[in-house]
Amino acid sequence: MDATLLAIVASRKPAFKVFLDDQGIQTCSDLKYSWESGKQLLATYEATIGKLPSDEAFQLLLIYTLAASQAHVATGAQIRAIVDERESVIPGRPAMRLEEAPQVQAPVRARSVITPGLTEHMPNLIEAASSDPHTAEQARREMKTQALFQFAVEHLVDLQELGLSWKALNDPSRMQALRESLMACTLRLSVERLGALTSAIRRWVRFAEEQDYSVRTPTPLQLSEFLRKVGNGGPTASSSMFQALKWFEQNMGTKFHTEHYLIRPHRFHHPTHSGVQKGRT
Q1: Residue-number span of the structural domain to which 73 is assigned
Q2: Quick count: other Cβ atoms within 10 Å of Cβ 91?
């Protein structure tokens, strides 16, 4: 099995690799063209090995989707190499191309890779969620995690700091590797917490864009202005937002200055706030 397919299969159930080896599958293209769809692969596996639980079936479908995407990329690279060879003035020498300028925003193709995490359609999570409560919870977590990942990559993460570029992330396998690394910090978070963090950071980005402030590296004064505005929403609003911004600073590399003297006061509830409602004893 080649390195590309092994990278996709290695983190999944070991029996999947054994099955693919037994079938003579060595590359992503082998897998893609041996079965017309992930459902056909799943049917063959279950006919050979036995019925899979819903979460393991989802993983096998995901293997097919990733491999099919990578096979598509490999085919495109081969076509481009042939075209370069034919366009070259000197036989045997690839045509020279100007280096592309760095891209600040996600190009259209990269967005299509980010949105589902892949270039192919992911298994239908809603359909899977209808089967049992455990899968339903997994489906909710997957959708919340993907939403946060998409937003973070487009607005928060400094790709250059990570040695990446939008051009490199056109490769679905590299996009998937980034997702697994970046979102490792969310594994112990509840679905509700994931939703709250996404909502909080969206609010900051809207404010920053309206004021023409840097989203990733605002000044302490700009963030203090934002937190004061949030604080008008209630005695705990500012401190809740502070905690969300601190989470992104610690886990996504943003420069939110949560230890700065202008920001630190917002870590506490408003002094008039009490944990016990008035009128109760």
Answers
A1: 1-94
A2: 7
Three-state secondary structure call for residue 226: helix
Report d(CA 131, CA 126) in Å as an integer.
Answer: 9
Closest alpha carbon to 8 in 48, 36, 38, 46? 38
Burial category of 168 from C-beta neighbours within 10 Å (exposed 0-12, middle 13-18, buried 19 and up): middle
Report the predicted TM-score, pTM, of the whole model to 2 decimal places: 0.55
Specify whether 169 is located in the same domain as 236.
no
User: How many separate domains does the chain show?
Assistant: 3
| 8 Å CB contact between 170 and 110 | yes
Residue 126 CB contacts under 8 Å (≥ 6 apart), including other chains: 139
pLDDT tens for the chain, residues 1 to 281:
787 888 788 777 888 888 998 888 988 888 888 988 888 898 999 998 888 888 788 888 888 888 887 877 766 666 666 655 655 544 554 444 444 445 555 555 555 555 544 444 445 544 555 555 666 677 778 788 888 888 888 889 888 888 888 888 777 778 888 888 999 999 888 889 999 999 999 999 999 999 999 999 999 999 999 999 998 888 888 899 999 999 999 999 899 999 999 999 988 766 554 444 444 43
Q: Is 128 helix (H, G, I), strand (E, B) or coil?
A: helix
Flag whether 278 is in a domain.
Answer: no
Amino acid symbol at 87: E
Question: Hey, is 115 helix, strand or coil?
Answer: coil
Question: Which sign does the torsion angle of CA 228, 229, 233, 236 carry?
Answer: negative
Q: Is residue 177 part of a domain?
A: yes
Contacts from 210-218 at CB under 8 Å and sequence distance 24+? 215/155, 215/156, 216/155, 216/156, 216/158, 216/254, 216/255, 217/254, 217/255, 218/255, 218/256, 218/257
> Rounded to an integer, what distance in angstroms lies between the CA atom of residue 247 and that of residue 241?
10
Ramachandran angles phi, psi of 84, nearest 5°: -60, -40
